[in-house]
From TrEMBL:
Compartment(s): Membrane
Species of origin: Euphydryas editha
Name by which UniProt lists this protein: SLC12A transporter C-terminal domain-containing protein
Any one cellular-component term (Gene Ontology): membrane
Gene Ontology biological process terms in this record: cell volume homeostasis; chloride ion homeostasis; potassium ion homeostasis; potassium ion import across plasma membrane; sodium ion homeostasis
InterPro entries for the chain: SLC12_C, SLC12A_fam
Length: 95
């Protein structure tokens, strides 16, 4: 896969995803591609887009497919920040 942004910076992602993996995760793949379309449409003039990074599943998800999903999300706009937490509840109080 090859992506480029408006600054002519080219990012190449070389992944090998099997046809069986794509068929097994077809609905999730379509969901991430739809999210990519919506992010691109809604943030056309944005200088930075922050997107919650999808959580990888521990079993059953090939790393190459997860990397392809991240590459698709990151190519939605020229500058994308993928943000992910560690499922720890954090509250900050200032006094």
């Amino acid at each position: 896969m090859k992506y480029s942004n408006s600054e002519d910076v080219v990012v190449c992602v070389s992944v090998s995803v099997t046809e069986a993996d794509l068929l097994a995760a077809r609905s999730r793949t379509h969901r991430y591609l739809r999210v990519r379309e919506l992010v691109g449409a809604q943030s056309a003039g944005a200088r930075l887009v922050c997107v919650t990074q999808p959580m990888p599943r521990r079993r059953g998800l090939p790393p190459a497919l997860y990397a392809a999903w991240l590459a698709a999300l990151a190519s939605a706009a020229p500058r994308v920040l993928l943000v992910r937490g560690n499922h720890a509840a954090v509250l900050t109080f200032y006094s």
